[in-house]
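Dear colleague,

As promised, here are the two records you asked about, laid out in our usual form so they can be pasted straight into your sheet.

NAME FIELD: protein one
SEQUENCE, THEN STRUCTURE:
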Amino acid sequence: MLKSLKSSFTNTLIYGVGNLATKLVGFILIPIYVKYFSTATYGVLGLLEVTGIALTSILGLSLSQALYRWYWDEEYAKQKKSMFFTLILFLSAFLAFTIFTSHYFTSIISNVIFGDISYRKLVFLVIVASSLQIIMQLVSSLIQLQQKAVLFTISNISILIIQLFFTVFFIVHMNLGLNGIYYAQIISLLTYFIIVSKFILNNIELKIEFNLLKLMFIYSSPMLISNIAALVISISDRYFIRVFGSLGNLGVYQFGYKIVNTLSVLVIASAQMAIFPMMFKKMNDPDAKRFYSKMKTYFTFGIMFFVLFLNFYGMEIIKVLAKKQEYWDSFKIIPFISLGIIFAMLRDLNTIPLQIVKKSALISKIVIVAAVFSFSINWLIIPKYGSMGAATSFIISQLFYFLLMYYYAQKHYRINYEVYKIIKMIVIAIGLFLLSLLLAKTHLFIRLSVKFLMILSFPVLLYYWNFFEEIEIDRMKGSWEKWKNLKKFKSNFFELLKGGTQ
């Protein structure tokens, strides 16, 4: 099991570089966005982004998730290439039809989202970019299933460079505004398919598996419903702010949310790319449940360092990224969104066991109940409290969603999770953050230094709260002995990479 955990950690590092490449674009470009866009325009961008997320989730038909479930199924071991060909052919045809017919609906969609049909061209560009993103996700899923971490990284770094260049060119030099963002996305996605074309050709067999496609639809259909419900949980807050507030208020909320979401897409999502395929691959192993339990504990432990850093230095980060003072209030929502993302991460880990036992219909029911709860909370809180109400609603919704998923996952696939250890981490993290607020008026250097020491105290406090087991302490001592010699850093690093990509 320790070998599997080490491999997961190593692949997380590699996938992190690749995932960093695609997601870092939005983070790098924040200073440009806030310089050239008002908070109202940034609010429009926020609505376009969540609309793109919705389209990607719905139009993808959850078939990438079906590929995860079927690819390592021994019964279909000889049909892997024809399985992938069937999926990519079907999705390509379906999305081409969607793009072709979307001209008739863009005005309606623009009016529903913005109350104005003048954004119809932007809506069309979002549909095109989302369609390409869906095909990319399918290919990326196969790359992850085969644990081709290096290919994943190279292809995504290429996207970073191309999208970054064209976005800056279109906004700064061509003055294309929001249109330029989506032109750059489309160009970078088309380039991605050129880069991975050889991999695609090597993994297809020109045979359509109608029966298998039918089975995948049966499996993924409930998950599609759950994905739609999940969208209500994750993005409805932005629409509520737009309806009951202003685009400027939405822009401030979106800016803070974007900074925290960087943690989610760069760190959490990168780790999930390495962990989730391995969880499915190990589902028949005798130590699978023990692996799942320790993985949740270690995953949460690692994420807490990033959460603490983001919350301790959130205001300083915002002021560096945004020179306009109208954006600075977004700091207030960072702690709320951060805690909500932790609950979301824990929930995702509980979803995998239900997928393993093929309880996709149950997952859909859970998500629908959580979506109704989230919508209700948004309706009650956001009209009165605006963006802070949305942030509070986010925590409550994600906590409820996690607890519901945890209860039913344990009922159908019981795992002895280290619940008390996770609670200890959350309690200490919240306590440290509250103490850090006392440093708000101190000198900048003192404030930054003390906060850094407080982050380092996190594992120390856990140690004195009997968090670590004897074997874990021994392993940490061994790692320290190995890595403290900086002269051997290069050889140790390449040894680590070798262990993760074999």
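NAME FIELD: protein two
SEQUENCE, THEN STRUCTURE:
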Amino acid sequence: MDYNTQRIKLVLPEYGRHIQDMVNHLLTVEDRDSRNKQALAVISIMGTMNPHLRDINDFKHKLWDHLHVMANFQLDIDSPYPKPDPDTLQEKPKIVPYPSHKMKYKHYGQAIEQIIAEVVKIEDEAQREYFAQLIANQLKKAYTTWNKDSVSDEDIFRDLKVLSAGKLSVNPGFKLTETREREKDIPHRPKKKFQVRKK
């Protein structure tokens, strides 16, 4: 018996062993014109077998690249596209650097820290205080999102001072929006009324 596990491993298994055999045959064709015609036929079959690739940009270019890959880059034909570089295809992806910025309070998020850093730069005191009130309300909203227990306004004001290095503060008499009041502002979908069909 001839098992697939005993055969040569396919370079691109999605095209199957028959296409690989066709590509291997192309390498044995000596006449260049005949080799070019057969290569076009193989490309046509590859495109028919994978119609989902037609949604991808440069569909034909991708097929020709796959043909060269299955031929181990040894196929000498008149391709409409340049032969791909083996080193480029085998190049390892670049390492994505892990964010090194440490947040003081993760439940508030990094975006709020960036907003606070911009508000601190505002020179107008009244405008800076107005934004500080908005930020304080956002801090309370974020806090209650992760912690359903009630939180005091004093705790939020304290966290705001810590995050702004003492540069932002809110008047002691200012009251933050209560959680229940915020939930009233959220639009809810109207409940559907089910009617019993009369027979």
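A couple of things worth noting about protein two: Residues 125-146 form the longest helix (22 residues). The chain has a mean pLDDT of 82.

Best,
R.
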